[in-house]
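Entry:
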Amino acid sequence: MMRPNLRRPPYRTYSITQLCREFGVTARALRFYEEQGLVFPSRREMQRVYSYKDRARLALIVRGRRVGLSLAQIRDILDLYEEQGEAAQNAKALSIFRQRIAELEAQRREVDEAIDALKQASQRLSTGYGVAAE
C-alpha cells in the first residue's frame, strides 16, 4: 500500500521581476513597499525573494492603491491580520472601505455639479453668441 506524501510542498517563491509583471508595478514601487514595511522579501545573495505571503500582501496593496487607499490605511489593514487575526482585519477593512466609498461619492457629486455648471455655461455661450453647438 502506498503511503501519502505527508511532507508539505515547498512554498512558492517569486522574483521581483515576476511580481512586477504579474501586478503591473515597477521594481521601484516594490522596493518602496519594502521600505515602508508592507512586504518582507528575504534575500538570496543580492536578490530579493518574495514569499507567497508577500505576493498576497502585494495583491492587497495594488488593489488598495487602485481604489485610492493611502499606504497608512493599507498598512493598518495588513498589520491587523498579523496582530489580531482575520476577523479584526475584515472589520477594519470594512470601516476603511465604507469611509472611502463616502469620499468617492462626495467627489462624484462635485464632478456632477461641475459638469452641470459647464453644460449650462456652454449652452448660454452657444445661444448668446450664436456659436454653433457641437
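The chain has a mean pLDDT of 89.
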